[in-house]
Amino acid sequence: MEITGNLNMIGYGLAAVGSAIGVAMVFVAYINGVARQPEAQRVLQPIAIFGFAVVEALAIFGLALAFVL
């Protein structure tokens, strides 16, 4: 049996799983914080959106590197 292809895509797949776990952790923390103190929602929401953006940016960066390398 012959296997051909690149290992870059396997690496990106692992990075995508890590990104999904990171996004889940960001929103779990946000939901827990708002459930405990609903009045803090205005403070926590921008932080959660910023965390989501950072995690997704790292996933997109990993995708770009998978295609470049």
CATH superfamily: F1F0 ATP synthase subunit C
Radius of gyration over C-alpha positions, nearest whole angstrom: 17 Å
Backbone shape: elongated
- Give the C-level CATH assignment: Mainly Alpha
Number of helices: 2
Assembly level: single chain
Question: How far from one another are the termini?
Answer: 25 Å
H-E string: HH
Structural class assignment: mainly alpha
Count every beta strand, where a strand is a DSSP E run of 2 or more residues.
0
What is the arithmetic mean of pLDDT?
88
Q: Predict the CATH topology.
A: F1FO ATP Synthase
- Kindly give the count of domains: 1
Show unreliable segments: none
| Secondary structure: helix percent | over 70%
Note the main sheet: none
Strand content: under 5%
CATH 2nd-level architecture: Up-down Bundle
Question: What does this protein look like?
Answer:
There is one protein chain. This protein has helices spanning 8-36, 41-68. It is built from two helices and no strands. The two termini are 25 Å apart. The protein has a single domain, classed as F1FO ATP Synthase, CATH 1.20.20.10. It is an all-alpha fold and 69 residues long. The protein is elongated and about 60 Å long. The mean pLDDT is 88. Helix 1 (8-36) packs antiparallel against helix 2 (41-68). Residues 10-69 form the V-ATPase proteolipid subunit C-like domain. It is a multi-pass membrane protein. InterPro entries: ATP_synth_F0_csu, ATP_synth_F0_csu_DDCD_BS, ATP_synth_F0_csu_sf, ATPase_proteolipid_c-like_dom, F/V-ATP_Csub_sf.
